[in-house]
Automatic annotation (TrEMBL):
Catalytic activity: prephenate + H(+) = 3-phenylpyruvate + CO2 + H2O
Species of provenance: Actinoalloteichus fjordicus
Entry's transmembrane regions: none
Keyword set, alphabetical order: Amino-acid biosynthesis, Aromatic amino acid biosynthesis, Lyase, Phenylalanine biosynthesis
GO molecular function: prephenate dehydratase activity
Identification of the protein by name: Prephenate dehydratase
EC number assigned by the record: 4.2.1.51
PANTHER family from the UniProt entry: PREPHENATE DEHYDRATASE P PROTEIN (PTHR21022), PREPHENATE DEHYDRATASE-RELATED (PTHR21022:SF19)
UniProt entry tagged with the keyword Amino-acid biosynthesis: yes
All copies of domain Prephenate dehydratase, residue ranges: 3-202
Site (Essential for prephenate dehydratase activity): T195
Length: 333
């Protein structure tokens, strides 16, 4: 039985994402057929088991060491941006790669100890990304409450159960899992907020290209004039669309950064492979974080994806390479 780890405890948004991703990536597994058959004596009958982890970092260590099959982690929220704990854990871990992603709408439930009224709430526990998405609601509805950070939204529910916080801002799933009162549901400062999650595992067989894919990289560069412009030019000249660029400190000294890049396209495409090779030539280190089908926010038609020009199609690359080769062969004849 293989373990799939997610940011726990039970009842996080990440657990919800893990259920979607596991059914998609392992469609023939027992878990995929029956997500409820996961506890008690049924454990021995299932191929995959979903298990909560305390942190994304701890889960990645388990995957890198071969003790778990995969980890599901939050990557980016449309309101608060990237999840730094996930980005930093990705760099700290031995290489693991994403094979799938999903995007979930994010609306929160506010849970409190049984019998507690909103007026009595003095401390509200939640994950920092969740706090940022309900800041206005908290200021309006619970103005006297102090926000306490926890490792996840479900960890906040556990704090309330243990009597260490009065209320928790959680995923709706937590309201089903913990014996707490629902003070408010469907809470969000930004109505259509979404968070993206990825399923990551040891490098191996990559998902087949679908035509709407994403490639994720971490690039460490030298500190010199124009480095970043050079990298971006390598992408632009090959018609590779950059969908995200994020810098994180390397932690070695002030002003030293590595860049997380998300590109449209799959490493199996010539233009993407060529661009990734060029980035490697031009930087200290490139870490490949996977090529996988891109999750489109609901309502986004495939046509909305920016198509590269014909001059960078696989056929155009093959044709140009064959022409150069013929010139070389002729010159040797
Ligand atoms: O705490 C959770 O429920 C999580 O799954 C983490 C997380 C995040 O890291 O952004 C996921 C979605 C929400 O944006 C808030 C928290």
């Amino acid at each position: 039985m293989r373990r799939i780890l997610y940011l726990g405890p039970e009842g996080t948004f990440t657990e919800q994402a893990a259920r979607t991703l596991v059914s998609r990536v392992y469609p023939d597994s027992t878990f995929g057929a029956d997500p409820t058959a996961l506890s008690g004596q049924a454990r021995s009958d299932v191929d995959l088991i979903l298990e909560p982890a305390v942190t994304v970092r701890a889960a990645m260590v388990e995957v890198s060491a071969g003790r778990a099959e995969a980890v599901v982690a939050p990557v980016e929220n449309s309101v608060e941006g990237s999840v730094p704990a996930t980005l930093d854990a990705l760099v700290a871990a031995d290489p693991i790669v994403a094979v799938a992603e999903t995007v979930l709408p994010v609306r929160f439930s506010v849970l409190a100890a049984p019998g507690m009224t909103a007026e009595q709430v003095r401390t509200v526990a939640t994950h920092p990304h969740a706090a940022a998405q309900v800041r206005e609601w908290l200021a309006r509805e619970l103005p006297d409450a102090v926000v306490v950070s926890t490792t996840s939204t479900a960890a906040a529910a556990v704090e309330v159960l243990a009597g260490r916080a009065d209320a928790a801002v959680t995923a709706p799933l937590a309201a089903e899992r913990y014996a707490l009162d629902v003070l408010a549901a469907d809470v969000a400062d930004v109505r259509d907020a979404v968070t993206s999650f990825r399923l990551l595992r040891l490098p191996g067989r990559m998902p087949e290209p679908t035509g709407v894919d994403r490639t994720s990289l971490v690039v460490t560069v030298d500190d010199r004039i124009g480095t970043l412009a050079d990298l971006l030019t390598e992408l632009a000249t090959r018609g590779v669309n950059l969908t995200r660029i994020e810098s994180r400190p390397t932690r070695s000294r002030l002003g030293s950064y590595r860049f997380f890049l998300d590109l449209d396209g799959h490493l199996a495409e010539r233009r993407v492979a060529d661009a990734v090779a060029a980035l490697r030539r031009r930087s200290q280190e490139v870490r490949f974080l996977g090529s996988f089908p891109r999750a489109l926010p609901s309502g986004c038609a495939v046509a909305a994806v920016i198509s590269p020009p014909e001059s960078v199609s696989d056929a155009a690359f093959a044709d140009a390479a064959a022409w150069v080769q013929s010139l070389q062969e002729r010159s040797r004849a």
